[in-house]
From TrEMBL:
The lineage of its organism: Bacteria, Bacillati, Actinomycetota, Actinomycetes, Kitasatosporales. It comes from Kitasatospora paracochleata. Keywords: Hydrolase, Metal-binding, NAD, Transferase, Zinc. InterPro entries: DHS-like_NAD/FAD-binding_dom, NAD-dep_sirtuin_deacylases, Sirtuin, Sirtuin_cat_small_dom_sf, Ssirtuin_cat_dom. This is protein acetyllysine N-acetyltransferase. The keyword NAD applies.
């Protein structure tokens, strides 16, 4: 009898994109360590209330170059996993769109924290490309307003102080409940409610693998913890998954 091929859920955090030139937040060299005040730039209360915070946030987006970032070997490894015929869903905390740019079908990527590829008006909810807003900043607008109604623009991301989209969270919960293997990659696994997804997977019988440079709250529950750099560790892990290393019945955790 053929072994059951797994449904693989891969939860990705900022660590998978650092090799694409996008800094993480909480790591030893992360943005919050280098500039703790930067956190208010992505916190909804200060962002809406303070024009100076918005101006600084637009300058940060302009200078970060995230829209020009290219997928790296970690992103491409997950495309290889999908193209090998493995049922895979990516639950990403990232807003950079690099999984889709690498070639993963958009329907297989659940963006838990939204996307930085677009901006949205907080008043009329109109959406426009981030690139258009950044072009206006480059042309001299320090706090570009919605062209439709004059309202404030924000990235179509979930800022600190905002709730995740309940529909998106429900989709992610369903994947975590159904998967056979849950791989957490480049995430501190500390930001809730997304950080609860590995626990949901464990409670429904999935195996757990953690790929992260720093310790996480789930290391003790994981079947395997990988500390090597993601751009080398993830392609190697994908090859093992494709070869069938995680097919069949999960190991007992009793």
């Amino acid at each position: 009898m053929n072994a059951k091929r797994p449904l693989v859920a891969v939860m990705t955090g900022a660590g998978i994109s650092t090799d694409s030139g996008i800094p993480d937040y909480r790591g030893p060299q992360g943005l919050w360590q280098r500039d703790p005040s930067a956190q208010e730039l992505v916190t909804i209360g200060p962002y809406l209330a303070d024009p100076d915070v918005r101006r600084r946030a637009w300058l940060l987006r302009r200078d970060a170059g995230a829209l020009a970032a290219e997928p790296n070997a970690g992103h491409r490894a997950l495309v290889d996993l999908e193209r090998a015929g493995i049922a895979v869903r990516v639950l990403t905390q990232n807003v950079d769109g690099l999984h889709q740019r690498a070639g993963l079908p958009a329907r297989k990527v659940i963006e838990l924290h939204g996307t930085a590829q677009e901006v949205q008006c907080v008043r009329c909810r109109a959406r426009t490309p981030m690139g258009e807003a950044l072009a206006r900043v480059a042309a001299g607008e320090d706090d570009p307003a919605c062209l439709a109604c004059g309202g404030l623009l924000k990235p179509r991301t979930v800022m600190f102080g905002e709730l995740l989209d309940p529909v998106v969270l429900q989709q992610a919960d369903a994947v975590a409940q159904a998967c056979d293997l849950f791989v957490a990659v480049g995430s501190s696994l500390q930001v809730h409610p997304a950080a609860a997804l590995p626990q949901i997977a464990l409670e429904h019988g999935a195996r757990l693998i953690v790929v992260n440079a720093e310790p996480t709250p789930y290391d003790d529950a994981a079947e395997e913890v990988v500390r090597e750099p993601i751009s080398t560790a993830l392609p190697a892990l994908v090859k093992r998954i494709v070869a069938g290393a995680y097919d069949g019945t999960p190991t007992s955790r009793e």
